[in-house]
Structures are given as structure tokens and as C-alpha cells.
């Protein structure tokens, strides 16, 4: 199984766990605004690592960012499948536009 799909499944399961033993449950219990705030903080930390050209830190912050995005998506009842479908739709749209702009 893809590691992101596996993490998404764990997050869905842990949302209902005991907040004293689960970070996902604890954060989810604090509500959508708090989850979104954490995502924003991780995004800022990712930007700082990128600007500092610190590849090791950027990798870690990117992992934190993706993890918190998955927690937010789960809270909103959305999934990676929804994001993949949107990306595929855009790829389809741009693919059609690219073909249309090519000379016959
Ligand atoms: N991948 C992660 C993961 N990445 C980051 N984090 C947590 O995200 C938090 C971010 O750090 P911060 O210092 O910003 O946050 P904090 O101080 O804990 O919280 P605040 O009080 O500041 O809001 C840390 O507590 C990290 O442990 C994660 N917590 C859990 N997972 C995975 O999620 C799954 C479920 O975890 P549990 O819900 O804990 O069982 C497991 O597979 C875990 O490996």
C-alpha cells in the first residue's frame, strides 16, 4: 500500500481514539480551526526551511505539512482520492487545451 494511503487510513482510525494516547484524536478534538492553524504553522516552517536551503529540515517539515493536511482533509470528510481526482481533472483539462493549441 502507498505510504500516504496507509497514513490516511491510520488517521481516519485514530480520529476516534483516546486523545490522551493519540495526537490525531487530540488535535481533531480541538476542531477544524485548530487543525487549519497547525497546517498553516507547518507551511510557514516548510517555507523557512526551503529559503534556508536546508534539505534535511525541508524534508521533515514537508512530512509534517502533508500529515497535517491529511488530518484536515479527514476532518472535512475529504480524502486523498478527492485530491487525486481534482489533479487528474486538471491534467485532463490542460491536456485537451494543449492538443487544441497544436497545429493540425
Ligand atoms: N505522522 C505523524 C506525525 N507527524 C507529526 N506529528 C505530530 O505533530 C506535532 C507537531 O509538532 P508541534 O510541536 O507543532 O505540535 P505540539 O506541540 O505537539 O502541539 P501544539 O500544542 O503546539 O498544538 C508533533 O506532536 C508530532 O508528533 C505526527 N503525529 C502522528 N503521526 C502519525 O499519525 C499516526 C497516528 O498517530 P497517533 O494519533 O498519535 O496515534 C501514526 O502513524 C503516527 O506516526
TrEMBL record:
EC assignment: the record states 3.6.1.31
Q: Which organism is it from?
A: Sphingomonas canadensis
Write down the Pfam families for this protein, in alphabetical order. PRA-PH
The UniProt keyword set, sorted, is:
Amino-acid biosynthesis, ATP-binding, Cytoplasm, Histidine biosynthesis, Hydrolase, Nucleotide-binding
MF-aspect GO terms: phosphoribosyl-ATP diphosphatase activity
Q: Which PANTHER family match?
A: HISTIDINE BIOSYNTHESIS BIFUNCTIONAL PROTEIN (PTHR42945), HISTIDINE BIOSYNTHESIS BIFUNCTIONAL PROTEIN HISIE (PTHR42945:SF9)
Please indicate which superkingdom the organism of origin belongs to. Answer: Bacteria
Known NCBIfam families for this protein? histidine_hisI, PRK00400.1-3, PRK00400.1-5
| SUPFAM superfamilies associated with the record | all-alpha NTP pyrophosphatases
Full protein name: Phosphoribosyl-ATP pyrophosphatase
- Where is the protein localized? Cytoplasm
Per the record's keyword annotation, is Nucleotide-binding included, yes or no? yes
